[in-house]
Amino acid sequence: MKYLIDGDEAILGRVGSRVAKLLIEGNEVALINAEKIRITGHIPDLAAKYKRLIELKDRANPEHSPFYSRRPDLFVKRSIRGMLPYKQPKGKAAYKLLKVYMGDAKDIKEAKAYTIKDVKAKKAGDAFENSVSVLELVEKLGYKK
Questions:
Q1: How far apart are CA 43 and CA 123, in angstroms?
Q2: What are phi and psi of 71, to 5 degrees?
Q3: Which residues pair with 137 in a beta bridge?
Q4: Domains: count for the chain
Q5: Could you tell me if 18 and 115 are in contact, meaning their C-beta atoms sit under 8 angstroms apart?
Q6: Residues 57-75 pLDDT 10s
Q7: Using an 8 Å Cβ cutoff, are 7 and 98 in contact?
Protein backbone atom coordinates (compact mmCIF):
# COMPACT_ATOMS: atom_id res chain seq x y z
CA MET A 1 0.00 0.00 0.00
CA LYS A 2 1.23 3.51 -0.76
CA TYR A 3 1.01 6.27 1.83
CA LEU A 4 1.41 10.01 1.33
CA ILE A 5 2.36 11.86 4.52
CA ASP A 6 2.52 15.64 4.85
CA GLY A 7 5.36 16.77 7.11
CA ASP A 8 4.13 20.35 7.51
CA GLU A 9 4.64 21.38 11.20
CA ALA A 10 5.22 17.75 12.26
CA ILE A 11 7.85 16.82 14.83
CA LEU A 12 10.70 14.81 13.31
CA GLY A 13 10.92 12.10 15.97
CA ARG A 14 7.20 11.44 16.04
CA VAL A 15 6.64 11.35 12.31
CA GLY A 16 9.88 9.41 11.78
CA SER A 17 8.93 6.62 14.15
CA ARG A 18 5.49 6.23 12.56
CA VAL A 19 7.00 6.23 9.06
CA ALA A 20 9.60 3.65 10.13
CA LYS A 21 6.80 1.39 11.40
CA LEU A 22 4.94 1.68 8.09
CA LEU A 23 8.13 0.88 6.17
CA ILE A 24 8.91 -2.20 8.27
CA GLU A 25 5.39 -3.47 7.53
CA GLY A 26 6.24 -3.33 3.81
CA ASN A 27 4.34 -0.17 2.80
CA GLU A 28 5.64 2.45 0.39
CA VAL A 29 5.77 5.89 1.99
CA ALA A 30 6.15 9.29 0.33
CA LEU A 31 6.89 12.12 2.77
CA ILE A 32 6.25 15.61 1.38
CA ASN A 33 7.18 19.05 2.80
CA ALA A 34 10.32 17.69 4.45
CA GLU A 35 11.77 21.18 4.94
CA LYS A 36 8.81 22.18 7.16
CA ILE A 37 9.30 19.34 9.66
CA ARG A 38 10.31 20.66 13.09
CA ILE A 39 13.02 19.43 15.45
CA THR A 40 12.46 20.15 19.13
CA GLY A 41 15.18 21.20 21.51
CA HIS A 42 17.40 24.12 22.43
CA ILE A 43 18.27 25.64 19.06
CA PRO A 44 21.98 26.47 19.64
CA ASP A 45 22.56 22.99 21.06
CA LEU A 46 20.85 21.39 18.06
CA ALA A 47 22.98 23.37 15.63
CA ALA A 48 26.18 22.45 17.50
CA LYS A 49 25.22 18.76 17.66
CA TYR A 50 24.50 18.43 13.95
CA LYS A 51 27.52 20.56 12.98
CA ARG A 52 29.72 18.14 14.94
CA LEU A 53 28.10 15.17 13.15
CA ILE A 54 28.57 16.72 9.71
CA GLU A 55 32.22 17.52 10.32
CA LEU A 56 32.99 14.09 11.78
CA LYS A 57 35.90 12.51 9.89
CA ASP A 58 37.93 9.40 10.48
CA ARG A 59 41.64 10.19 10.60
CA ALA A 60 42.75 6.88 9.15
CA ASN A 61 40.29 6.86 6.26
CA PRO A 62 38.31 10.12 5.81
CA GLU A 63 36.53 8.87 2.67
CA HIS A 64 34.72 6.19 4.67
CA SER A 65 33.36 8.54 7.33
CA PRO A 66 29.58 8.76 7.85
CA PHE A 67 27.82 11.25 5.60
CA TYR A 68 25.08 13.59 6.80
CA SER A 69 23.58 15.73 4.07
CA ARG A 70 22.79 19.43 4.43
CA ARG A 71 19.85 19.15 2.01
CA PRO A 72 16.55 19.06 3.97
CA ASP A 73 14.99 16.04 2.25
CA LEU A 74 18.12 13.92 2.60
CA PHE A 75 18.58 15.12 6.19
CA VAL A 76 15.10 13.82 7.08
CA LYS A 77 15.65 10.61 5.15
CA ARG A 78 18.87 9.94 7.07
CA SER A 79 17.07 10.59 10.37
CA ILE A 80 14.40 8.04 9.48
CA ARG A 81 17.13 5.59 8.45
CA GLY A 82 18.40 5.74 12.02
CA MET A 83 15.02 4.44 13.19
CA LEU A 84 15.22 1.37 10.97
CA PRO A 85 17.31 -1.78 11.48
CA TYR A 86 19.36 -0.65 8.48
CA LYS A 87 22.19 -3.18 8.78
CA GLN A 88 19.75 -6.07 8.41
CA PRO A 89 18.23 -7.06 5.06
CA LYS A 90 14.69 -6.19 6.15
CA GLY A 91 15.85 -2.70 7.16
CA LYS A 92 17.55 -2.05 3.83
CA ALA A 93 14.48 -3.31 1.97
CA ALA A 94 12.27 -1.02 4.08
CA TYR A 95 14.56 1.98 3.47
CA LYS A 96 14.22 1.54 -0.30
CA LEU A 97 10.45 2.03 0.04
CA LEU A 98 10.89 5.56 1.43
CA LYS A 99 10.68 8.66 -0.75
CA VAL A 100 11.17 12.12 0.77
CA TYR A 101 10.37 15.33 -1.11
CA MET A 102 10.84 19.03 -0.48
CA GLY A 103 7.58 20.85 -1.13
CA ASP A 104 4.61 19.17 -2.76
CA ALA A 105 5.54 16.36 -5.09
CA LYS A 106 3.36 16.55 -8.17
CA ASP A 107 4.51 13.23 -9.61
CA ILE A 108 2.93 11.12 -6.85
CA LYS A 109 -0.22 9.39 -8.01
CA GLU A 110 -2.57 6.81 -6.54
CA ALA A 111 -1.15 7.25 -3.06
CA LYS A 112 -3.53 7.24 -0.11
CA ALA A 113 -3.32 10.50 1.83
CA TYR A 114 -2.52 9.46 5.37
CA THR A 115 -2.70 11.71 8.38
CA ILE A 116 -0.84 10.73 11.51
CA LYS A 117 -2.40 11.86 14.77
CA ASP A 118 -0.37 13.56 17.50
CA VAL A 119 2.66 14.40 15.36
CA LYS A 120 1.93 18.07 14.73
CA ALA A 121 3.61 20.68 16.90
CA LYS A 122 1.06 22.79 18.73
CA LYS A 123 1.57 26.44 17.86
CA ALA A 124 0.94 27.64 21.41
CA GLY A 125 2.86 24.91 23.20
CA ASP A 126 6.45 24.61 24.36
CA ALA A 127 7.25 22.10 21.60
CA PHE A 128 6.67 24.77 18.96
CA GLU A 129 8.51 27.57 20.76
CA ASN A 130 11.58 25.41 21.45
CA SER A 131 11.81 23.97 17.97
CA VAL A 132 13.35 24.80 14.66
CA SER A 133 12.33 23.72 11.16
CA VAL A 134 14.65 21.43 9.25
CA LEU A 135 15.20 24.15 6.63
CA GLU A 136 16.32 26.69 9.26
CA LEU A 137 18.64 24.13 10.86
CA VAL A 138 20.35 23.06 7.63
CA GLU A 139 20.76 26.70 6.61
CA LYS A 140 22.70 27.21 9.86
CA LEU A 141 24.80 24.20 8.87
CA GLY A 142 25.64 25.72 5.48
CA TYR A 143 22.85 24.72 3.08
CA LYS A 144 22.18 27.21 0.31
CA LYS A 145 19.09 27.03 -1.92
A1: 17
A2: -75, 130
A3: none
A4: 1
A5: no
A6: 777 877 777 778 889 999 9
A7: no
